[in-house]
């Protein structure tokens, strides 16, 4: 799923009324009104220690390509590929990292059959194929066992009704429709992908009394390399294939992720089960291509309100229709969706290198399951990188290295359905993780394009950026702002982001870690509006696409892998745990400024004094612990260093609020969470001070006030942990 490429992030930006194609605006969005960090100088070529050189030189783009080929040539939908899990564990073991499978027994559903047709008022019909075109050039798109287009966890059922185009299907869109008096009750929703996690579109449609949902990908979200601008569609060129369909989960992930039937505890064969109805949709839904959406949209032209009259940003796409709401009297969609329920095993491969300090652990993970036979970007670019990294770490082990901290390598299953493999594993090992985990490093889509794109907990800023300078980035990449010679990963990243390391929302396997107070980073590279269109969750996310358009020489894969290896090495082996608490404090102030703006915009009054005091206290404690750190390092005092390291390991546990956020107890982090109605977007969805911000946005100032206290209390707890 889950980690969205840059391009989709650009779409998200457009929702804020800014030109999606101007990447510099994109990256400023998070830091509105804040100072960006200045570009730092970089040595070229990078200067590496012996250990770093062993790691970096061990990466080979040819073997990464082999691993990519392996992962992208078989069905590996969640719960359907134990062989691939075992293969992964075997490769890691061979490379010197003892690995085995952790099995969970979870609820999933699989597609059986589906249909969609439109009956026009004059009685004639259009029947959708619900298929992506088979391309002879791209072998896995033609396989007999290719995976149908469907929504994971969608409801089995039929719906026949007139239908309404609901824009992006966010709450604000529905509110606008209600304001305009458009009849929603008993109708089917036709929604455009983008802007919010797809499950929330279905959830909103259901909440407004609609009986089915159809989601389409609009060519307006496909950047500048479009057919209209003269580019051929895939496989002949970089433009979006007109039959592209985005599969994906419709679990209500912003409520809780993981197995819907075992919230808060691991899914074992004999675990008690709930019905999961809090996070499972109650209406059927289907994903379609723009080619098949066009007749549905056209039939609404002239009915209800035109897109222009609706007047909401990002309501209108690039098709030659008015994006009218409808309904068109007598234009009726008939849809059927049959899913097979399964309570079935899924398999995480887990590899462990014991550290000398058994009470400190670094976890590194990638998911392995995909919606399609391929999955060359999502997620198996990351899987290929992890296999290559196990080889690199193995070489270091061979020359006698033992990390100070335990390293746990994880290949998660079931991420696509709802972060299941990682969530269940965290739920099983939570006591040990709370005691020992220093951080979680995630790589989902290592590469769907050339632009490095990271998000992290703010305390990882320094180490994350320092290590970017040690990796040479493939040249020949074109950047919006002009190419840079002698490019390191840092240069490429800075050029994209102006030094902004994004806030983690949700949408990949770091979620369960972060919301238990374990700092995380999510790394990868995506495409921008000027790069080949990435067919997310489609048959065209294939080895053929990757090796012709995405990363033809697998050199971006290699650079991302080298970076992850260096990061793992330093997190696990440095005497001092790298923790940039000053940056965390600075970000808390920035988020506070954002919160004040939110309160002002809501015309409310809210006393934020307690929160402000807590942040100030945190500031003070950071200065103290940094002084202690300096003392420990200068005196090479290992006992003192251990004291500091344990503070760095533990401090973020303070930021989790035990009862969880209002109405969603899984999400406990008081500083950042996925937005309740934006969900799992990688880049823009995070809401900061979520307990307070969302209460303010809902106009509930009593709740907001309660959350000012709870948030302040959590920050005081974190401050207490680092107190010297
Ligand atoms: C019915 O209406 C559709 C849409 O306007 C049109 O394409 C089709 O040709 C019409 N069929 C007949 C039989 O008139
Ligand atoms: C991309 O397309 C947009 C909108 O059509 C246009 O304004 C922009 O200049 C294009 N960017 C480039 C670099 O061609
Ligand atoms: C559309 O909305 C904007 C801002 O919400 C408003 O300024 C503008 O007048 C509206 N346009 C129309 C045609 O209603
Ligand atoms: C768009 O649709 C209108 C009305 O159906 C048609 O007249 C026009 O030629 C179309 N434009 C393009 C560029 O296809
Ligand atoms: C649902 O629709 C399918 C396809 O049109 C049909 O075969 C099936 O009988 C319908 N089921 C029910 C319960 O109406
Ligand atoms: C790692 O440590 C664990 C717990 O102490 C122990 O059970 C395991 O055998 C060790 N593994 C290796 C490869 O030494
Ligand atoms: C690139 O690196 C080479 C070797 O270090 C150096 O001579 C050259 O000046 C660098 N070019 C730029 C543009 O920095
Ligand atoms: C690996 O990189 C080299 C040099 O960039 C290139 O010639 C080769 O084709 C690449 N291998 C693959 C499998 O793409
Ligand atoms: C806040 O007040 C302004 C000006 O009175 C008004 O335009 C705006 O709609 C109000 N916002 C909310 C959320 O009530
Ligand atoms: Zn993914």
TrEMBL record:
Report the domain of life of the source organism: Eukaryota
Region annotation Disordered: residue ranges? 257-276
Residue ranges constituting the Peptidase M28 domain according to the UniProt record: 350-544
SUPFAM superfamilies with a match to the protein in the record: PA domain, Transferrin receptor-like dimerisation domain, Zn-dependent exopeptidases
Where does the record place Low complexity bias? 257-266
CDD domains linked to this entry: M28_PSMA_like (cd08022), PA_GCPII_like (cd02121)
Under the GO molecular function aspect, what terms does this record hold? Answer: carboxypeptidase activity
Keyword annotations from UniProtKB, A to Z: Signal
Output the InterPro entries linked to this UniProt entry.
PA_dom_sf (IPR046450), PA_domain (IPR003137), Peptidase_M28 (IPR007484), Peptidase_M28B (IPR039373), TFR-like_dimer_dom (IPR007365), TFR-like_dimer_dom_sf (IPR036757)
Q: Where is the PA domain?
A: 162-247
| The Transferrin receptor-like dimerisation domain, residue ranges | 606-722
Q: Residues of the signal sequence?
A: 1-20
Q: Which Gene3D superfamilies does its entry note?
A: 3.50.30.30, Transferrin receptor-like, dimerisation domain, Zn peptidases
Q: Which family does it belong to?
A: Belongs to the peptidase M28 family. M28B subfamily.
- Entries under PANTHER family matching the protein: N-ACETYLATED-ALPHA-LINKED ACIDIC DIPEPTIDASE, VACUOLAR PROTEIN SORTING-ASSOCIATED PROTEIN 70
Q: What is this protein called?
A: N-acetylated-alpha-linked acidic dipeptidase
